[in-house]
Fold this sequence. Notes:
Arc Repressor Mutant, subunit A
Amino acid sequence: MAARDETGFEDFVAARSADLLRTCVLLTRDRGHAEDLLQTALVKAYRRWGRISRDDPYPYVRRILVTTAASWRRLRSTQEIVSLPAYDPPGPDPTEAVAERERLAAALATLPARMRTVLVLRYAEDHSEAATAELMGCSVATVKSQTVRGLARLRTVLGDTALITVPEES
C-alpha cells in the first residue's frame, strides 16, 4: 500500500472507529466481541483500501462489518460456546441516560440477531429501509416486517415506560 493510502486509512480509522465500534457493540452485545469484530472488519478494509471509494469509505467498511458479524453468527451457531464467569461486572451507573442505554441494550439482546441488526441499522445508524435492505442483502419488505416485530418485542420487554416510536417514512 502506498504511503498516502496508508495515511488515508489511518485518518479514516481515527475519525470513524468510534462510530463503527458503537455499531459493533449493538450488533454483538459484548464490548470484547465488538472490539474483535471491529478489528477484523478494519483488517479486511485495509486489504482492499486501494479499491475503496475515496469519497466516503464508511459505507463500504460498515458493510464489511455487518457481513462479518453475520458470518460470525453462522459460525458461532455451529460451535460449542463455553460460558465463563464475568471478570469484573460494571457497577450501576448513577446517571439516568447511561442506565436507560443499558436497559435498551439488554432489551436488544433479547431479540434474534437479524431483528436486532435491522433495528441497529435503522435507528442507531439512521439508515432508510432501502439502505438497510441493501446492507443486509434482503428485501425492503423483510426490513419492514423485522422492524415492526422488533419494535413490538422491545415495547413488550421495556414496558410502558419506554418511548419507542416509529418515524413516518416519506
